[in-house]
Amino acid sequence: MNTSSSSHVAEQDWFTRAHVRITRPYETGTPLGTSHRFMKDEELELVQWGRAGEEVDRSTWWSGFEVDSAFIVPADDLEVLSVIEEKSPWTTS
User: What is the pLDDT of residues 72-81, one digit of tens each?
Assistant: First the structure.
């Protein structure tokens, strides 16, 4: 699975929900002011998503779909252990 940024525009709304492992300690916060420190080797479920017509960006993972309350973790700071559920940004012919 490619976790880096892509320069392609999504053909449809998409998402990926995955079981991940944090690879280094990382502190983050939400726009609402809540902070959290993820610890190395911590395992959790995170998501990526995007809208049709927007560039597919896989450079970050989110703790949820609610933008104001989700924690954001850079893709470089985690390892994807397994994909739980996924809808591709690309349509199939």
Answer: 999 999 999 9
